[in-house]
Design brief:
This is FCGBP protein. It holds the Pfam family C8. Residues 1-72, 267-445 form the VWFD domain. GO terms for molecular function: extracellular matrix structural constituent. There is one protein chain. By secondary structure, the protein is of the alpha+beta class. It is built from nine helices and 28 strands. The protein is globular.
């Protein structure tokens, strides 16, 4: 991003952000990047106070813009430990030493930018994460990547350049503006000869998109110039338009910056704790079994509806421990995504670190606070805290067309136990058994050992209902008070008492139950006041 007053912001959508300002801003800036007065001793200033922050966590906290659900100030007791001796090993030539090596590829840069801070940062990151990409601008840098060392793969019809022009020809501006040639070069992927950028894709000129109403659209995309008109960008820049009508359970509005037909609302399916289920229509039941089940899938296909399936696998604990979710598997847009407790994510059997965006932009997977969140272009969203809480959100266009443990989402909870035969299941167990996925080894249990599920003594239940325990959830003056109108506390309170009671008062079960209600509240857009302390959860 370049502005006419000299601000330049570079972001590689991954690890490196660089901000450049002209010298007219000398001494006039503030924030994490300091005040630009050439004095390194007064950098870590907090806003408005004029004093230095005592440590990095408090410096970061002081410049925090707002709270993101699940965002935490520091890593607490779980900070990865890399002492000086361990970091030292990564300062050598096998890892980061290439940055500061006297005769190395960055030698011409050393007199402009001192390498030591970058070497130290690189070694620190490499120690924690086993590798880190770095960035340097404005100086001739010699080739340092090889096929074995930090190789960079590029998308189709593009290639790697160490020092390419930041101004690439695009479908909209095929010739590079003269003002752009003065900009410093940058490392990255650049379009092959004969190809230009269409959005972020390299295409031949013949596959360029369309200009319409002063905007550029990629070829074969649909767009809405207004709520009355739907257009399509075809070949040779031709745009065809027709009168637009939104479907059932849709309305025309702006969402995420895009005008079009969007769902009138969303349905939510929740699984939490010692698996307690709340269907899309609000019916509640528990599953003590340790099998794999169909949670939700499209059973009544319709034009423009994307097919999807969500499976959940339970894992049996000990008699005092609850059954917990072990794995969630989502199949959509031709991908299968596996989320496993305390594991990295898998997409089509390959393991990835987050965040991840698929090449066709149909899936976006990232970490938001304690939660891992899958966004799909179909509007289906899965939020999983990799332990005790799972939230599946579907747009209203799927109303009455789903099946599985989450029900049919037709607004009527009384018919949620309907089987594909059309009959209603007589018992919860019959309904659950029907949606069980056959296992290869067949080794899973339908319920509690000998048919006896852990019960809770009435007197124990009363003690766990107090405000020092599960009562926090429904306390009208408590941290969840603003959430009560949006997400009923009744089921979460009942589930909490059950789980804590079965776990014989275990604090961990209580914390998980409170975390589940927190996630449900924040997903519904409700504010939650702080409830964790150093001594509590």
């Amino acid at each position: 991003l370049q502005t006419d007053f000299g601000l330049q912001v570079t972001y590689d959508e991954d690890k490196v952000i660089m901000v450049a300002v002209p010298s007219s801003y000398f001494g006039a800036t503030c924030g994490l990047c300091g005040n630009f007065n050439e004095d390194t001793e007064d950098e870590a200033m907090v806003p408005n106070g004029g004093h230095r922050a005592p440590d990095e966590t408090r410096l970061g906290d002081s410049w925090k813009v707002g709270d993101v659900p699940g965002c935490s100030a520091g890593c607490g007791d779980e900070c990865p430990v890399c002492d000086t001796a361990r970091v030292q090993a990564y300062r050598g030539d096998r890892y980061c030493g290439v940055i500061a090596r006297a005769g190395g590829p960055f030698r011409k840069c050393h007199r402009v930018i001192h390498p030591e801070p970058f070497l130290q940062d690189c070694a620190f990151d490499a120690c924690h994460y086993r590798g880190h990409r770095d960035t340097v601008h404005g100086v001739d840098v010699e080739t340092w990547r090889t096929a074995e060392f930090c190789s960079l793969s590029c998308p189709p019809h593009s290639h790697y350049e160490l020092c390419g022009s930041p101004c690439q020809p695009t479908c909209r501006t095929p010739s590079i503006p003269a003002a752009c040639t003065d900009s410093p070069c940058s490392e990255g992927c650049f379009c092959d000869p004969g190809y230009v950028l269409s959005g972020s894709d390299c295409v031949p000129h013949s596959e360029c998109g369309c200009e319409y109403g002063g905007r550029y659209y990629q070829r074969d995309t649909e767009f809405y110039p207004s709520c009355r008109e739907r257009c399509r960008c075809g070949t040779n820049g031709a745009v065809t338009c027709q009168e637009a009508f939104c479907g059932a359970h849709e309305e025309c509005r702006m969402e995420d910056g895009v005008l079009g037909c969007h769902p009138t609302g969303y349905g939510r399916l929740v699984v939490s704790g010692d698996p307690h289920y709340v269907t899309f229509d609000g019916r509640t039941f528990n599953i003590p079994g340790s099998c794999t089940y169909v949670l939700a899938r499209l059973c009544e296909p319709a034009p423009r509806l994307v097919n999807f399936t969500v499976l959940v696998e339970h894992e049996a604990g000990s008699p005092s421990d609850p059954v917990i979710m072990k794995r969630v598997m989502v199949s959509i847009h031709g991908y299968t995504i596996t989320m496993e407790r305390e594991q990295r994510w898998e997409v089509n059997s390959e393991r990835y670190t987050l965040p991840l965006v698929t090449e066709d932009n149909k899936l976006r997977i990232g970490q938001e606070g304690n939660n891992i969140v899958l966004h799909t272009s179909a509007g289906v969203r899965v939020l999983y805290n990799a332990a005790t809480f799972l939230l599946i959100t579907v747009p209203d266009v799927y109303r009455g067309r789903l099946c599985g443990l989450g029900g049919d989402y037709d607004g009527d909870p009384t018919d949620d136990f309907r089987l594909p035969t059309g009959a209603l299941a007589g018992t919860t167990q019959e309904f659950v058994t029907f949606w069980k996925v056959p296992q290869k080894d067949g080794a899973c249990s339908d319920g509690c050992d000998d048919g006896v599920c852990s019960e809770c003594d009435v007197s124990d239940a009363a003690s766990y209902s107090r405000n020092g325990s599960c009562g926090i959830i429904r306390d009208a003056e408590g941290p969840f008070q603003e959430c009560h109108p949006r997400v009923s506390p009744v089921e979460y309170f009942t589930h909490c008492v059950h789980d804590v009671c079965v776990a014989r008062g275990d604090r961990g079960a209580l914390c998980h139950a409170l975390q589940a209600y927190t996630a449900a509240c924040q997903a519904a857009g409700a504010a939650v006041k702080p409830w964790r302390t150093k001594e509590f959860c």
